[in-house]
Amino acid sequence: MKLYHFPPSTNSLKVRIALLEKGLEFESVVIDLTKREQKDPEYLKIHPFGQVPALDDDGVIVYDSTIIIEYLEDEYPHPPLLPADSENRAQARLMEDYRDNYVNPHFVTLIHEHRKPEDKRDAGLIREAHASIGAAFAAVERQLQGREYLAGSFSLADIAYMPNVALIERFDVPLDPDFKNVAAWIERLRTRSSYSATRN
Question: What is the pTM of this model?
Answer without folding.
Answer: 0.91
